[in-house]
Amino acid sequence: MPLVAVIATLLSANDLSRIVGGTVVTDQQRVPYMTAVGIVDRGRFMHICGGTLISSRLVLTAAHCIAVHRERLLESGVVFIGQTAPSDAKSAINISQVHIHPRFSEASLHMDVGAVRLAHSAPKTRTPALPSVDSTYAGRYASILGWGTVAEGSSLLSHQLLEAVVPVDAECGRYAAELITPSMICAGAPGKDACQGDSGGPLLMCDTPNGCEVIGVTSWGNGCARRDFPGVYAKVFPARDWL
Ligand code: ARG
Prior knowledge:
Layout: H1 3-18, E1 23-24, E2 34-41, E3 44-55, E4 58-61, H2 63-76, E5 77-81, E6 93-100, E7 114-118, E8 141-146, E9 162-167, E10 184-187, E11 202-205, E12 213-220, E13 231-235
The structure holds arginine (ARG).
Arginine binds at residues 148, 193-199, 218, 220-221, 224, 231.
């Protein structure tokens, strides 16, 4: 490798370890269903949340992403599907409808599952399966993906899609028990986590007989990547029938 490339790699690796401890996804074919949800404002894409394409016209995301931005999403909402760096306006797909799970609670973030319907079908691609069993996934590893902020407290989104592999934490770290409802699942390790702007994106379990399953939706956390405070994800299984 030429020296400049080595330095560039080191710099970016260093950058990443500050955030979610992730790596840059360079091959968009690995996660062709990964979606950026946002709005077009004066011709420019403004990222709101992550999402996952689960059928030709439906993108799974977090209910709170929709609750907070409902009007703007209905007015000028778009998605980019399968692009590691959303940019080319021509490939944006308009949002036609938004849906929030009927049992979503804005106060507790219980059932933080939502969906956006696309104005036309996404280009044909692979989508992850929905989970077929309700499992705790204790001790297993899952992938998280997003363009979220590069450090806790930062307002800078990542312009590249990042991915991290995180252990499921069946105990949910040290969160007070009353904060964690049965619709939530925790995953993360110190230095590895989702952060602001990653909400709505998938928690993917890929070592299943069905290939990758989207078992969770990025929902909330106390800070980002803190010891004892893993990321909290909305479980997809209890929302399966609704989807
Ligand atoms: N609520 C955040 C969002 O809207 C996601 C936060 C996830 N935080 C975490 N530490 N895992 O983007």
